[in-house]
Every structure is written in C-alpha cells, then in structure tokens.
Amino acid sequence: MIINKDYIIDNLKTLLYALIIALIIRSLLIQPFYIPSSSMEPNLLVGDRLFVTKYSYGYSKHSFPFSPPLFNGRILDSKPQRGDVVVFKTPSDNRTDYIKRLVGLPGDTIQFIDGDVYLNDNQILKTIVSKNDKIFCGDKKMSVNTFEEKLPNGKKYLASYRENYSFKNSDKFIVPLNHYFFLGDNRDCSKDSRFLASVGYVHEDNLVGKAQFIFFSSDYKIGYFVEFWKWHKSFRFKRLFKKIL
Hints:
single chain, mainly beta, Umud Fragment, subunit A, 7-stranded antiparallel beta sheet, 4-stranded antiparallel beta sheet, 2 helices
C-alpha cells in the first residue's frame, strides 16, 4: 500500500485547524462543565453538564487552558451581578474550578445569624417552599427545608438548609476590593467563601464565566455518560436545556 504524503499532511492540517477552532471557542466563547458535587443542590445536580459563557465577565489568564500568564488583570471587563451562578478558579491553587452563587460584591458585609444570611446588615429575604426534602451531601442523603431567597436586586433562587444548621452564626465577612463572596445553594454541604482557608474571597481575575443552561444530565448512580446503553434509565430528560437561575 502506497501512502500519499500530501494526503497525510492535508489531514494533519485539518486536525490542527479543528483543534485551534475548538480552543478559540472554548477560551473565548463557551465551555462545557460537569457538576461533580452536590454543593449547588437543589438547583444543580451531580451529573449535570452545562454551558458556561466565557465572555460574560471579560477575560483573564484563567479564561485559557492551564492559565498561561499572557497578560495581567482582565480585558473587556464586565462586572458580575448578585445571584449569578459563576465558575471560578479557587484562590487556594488558582487551578481548581468551582461553581457557586455570587452573593457578596466588593465592600459588602455578609454575616450568618441563627442560620439566616445578612447582607449589609439586612436579612436576605427567604420564603419556605417545602419541608423535609431529600437532597445529597456527597453520597449521603439528608433532610432539608427548601427556601426561595431574594437578593436586593430582585434575583430569586432556591436554597436548602438542614433544620439543625451546620453553619449557624459567624463574624462579619467584609468583602475586599476587587473580590467576591460566593455561597453554595446547598448551604449545609458546600465549601465556599465562608471557609477562608480553603476558598475565601475570590479575586475578580479568578472568574472564568457565567453558567447559563444545562445541555445534558444523567444520574451517575445508574450509569455514567459513556454508558450510552443506560441513557434511557439515567438520562434526566426534564433537565435538558434548563436555564440556570
């Protein structure tokens, strides 16, 4: 069999162009992410796959794979809004992707009092939606009460709390300049800005993008994504193209 040299070169060029285009789309426009933990239940479930828009807040070095030091700060900067569900690099290693809800802006104070969240000394309004719901914390189910919370800008979302709050009272968190404060919606099962040693305040340069909608979701306890023959049992059809609030 004679191998045509030009044929091989043309195919390598096509592959290279495809990789470059995919890299541009992933870095500048939109990137898929997988939800590996239950910290954002009941809104995001383990096994959700979602699209994150990279252009929503502009670009930093963390917009690109492996965070190359191409430039300092952000370009085409656009500020996030309270209530946005944001993917960011954790300050502890500037490498791991976390997804949480933005609650505190630069200069804000956040405090937990008897399990309630206070923003700038005003309690975030929360209204009970349902009681004794079962959601996950890791591989274990726990009983929670689900509330609808409303931020000062009118943003509404669901948040779950155990009856015996694990994080009941705190000192005031004062968000530094150019930083943000994030919380998981699964309040008693989330490592977030409340824990200063592991996450803490997140610098604006660490923002990766805004979560927009779920494009695929499957229950990994029934079958993993690659096990397509189990999709009829594991696929969560109701979550297809669900907008993230």
